[in-house]
Amino acid sequence: MVALVDSHCHLTWPSFDSDRAEVIARAQAEGVTRLVTIGTDLETSRQCVALAAEYAGVYAAAGIHPNDLGAGVTPDDLADLARLAAQPSVVAIGEIGLDYYWERTPHPVQQAAFEAQLTLAAALGKPVIIHDRDAHADVMATLRAWVHADATRRSPLAARRFWGVLHSFSGDLAQAQEALAWPFLLSFGGPITFKNGQALHALVTQLPLDRLLLETDAPFLTPHPRRGQRNEPAHVTLVAAALARLRQQPLAEV
Ligand code: NI
């Protein structure tokens, strides 16, 4: 069996409340040996850390999602995040970013929270997990400035091989290439299995395999042929199979 990582799932979501242990066991039975469960606010970030303590192979990310900002990120929130991120199971700050699709929070509030959490990540030396929905230009500009800032370049992050990941990447080839140079990783999930995903299908054949991550974003973005059902980390096997098929490479290599 091929060993896989689900680099992005939300195990704290209420739709897993009735069978979370079974969901994790099912993933591990399918060869998904490591799961990264991602916080979207302080409470779910705390719950992610607790899950990582409870289950072998589960790791956490702590961050405040642009759709969960409320009035914005306070200094107290950032201090809480920093304390959480000090836990060894917390492998990244995320998910953070900009969401101009749902428009739950005014753009300046999103931008300020995004920048504050990027600054925190650099200070802590933790890579970032980026959410970008219909906000490519502003996300890229913000990350470009952060990557090139002296404070980032002199931070503990600079010693790391990769500084972050653009999760469920939906940009174009030029944006992908810029992110790879920063140096970021790109993560792909259910959308690469969708029949109408031609642009994405072409894109994933043009990127270096060793810079790609697989994810489910469970319980969201369920891959074909399970669309319409709740997504879960075991389905990262379907994403891996789609990537292997699109790239015409053996699954084991992928
Ligand atoms: Ni997510």
Describe, in plain words, how this protein is organized in 3D.
This protein is α/β, with parallel strands linked by helices and 254 residues long. The chain has helices spanning 20-29, 42-54, 75-85, 107-124, 136-148, 150-153, 173-181, 198-204, 236-247, and strands spanning 4-9, 32-38, 58-62, 90-99, 128-133, 164-166, 184-188, 212-214. An 8-stranded parallel β-sheet has the order 1-2-3-4-5-6-7-8. Helix 7 (173-181) links the parallel strand 6 (164-166) and strand 7. Helix 2 (42-54) packs parallel to helix 3 (75-85). The longest helix has 18 residues, at 107-124. The model has no long low-confidence stretch (mean pLDDT 97). Bound molecules: nickel (II) ion (NI). Nickel (II) ion binds at residues 8, 10, 38, 95, 217. Residues 8, 10, 38, 95, 217 line the site of nickel (II) ion (NI).
Summarize this entry quickly.
By secondary structure, the chain is of the alpha/beta class.
Order of helices and strands: EHEHEHEHEHHEHEHEH
How much beta, percentage-wise?
A: 15-25%
In spatial order, strands of the major sheet run 1-2-3-4-5-6-7-8
Q: Largest sheet at a glance?
A: 8 strands, parallel
Bound molecules: nickel (II) ion
